[in-house]
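So, read this over?
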Amino acid sequence: MGYSAKALSDAIRMKRKRLKDDGVDNMVDTGPAPQMNPQDILFLKQQAQMEDSMDLPEKSMAPSDPADASVSGTSQDVAELKRQMGKIAKVFAKLSMSK
């Protein structure tokens, strides 16, 4: 699964060139517009205020015991890492093969 830097660079350059040749109609809007509207900001502030004022347990993605060496069922499980790397390899294969 070794991709050379030159091959990846060429593939990315060709993809950008193809997108540029397709024209403005097929481009993604990258304008400097806000990602959230005022209603979303107000909702998040109200939600944070409710969570602070209620007696809820603190949210955490950390394991309950940091000394626990078991990683089964987590993102660090070998099978999960292999699955994710397979997805990445497919993306790179599509990138380098497309013309």
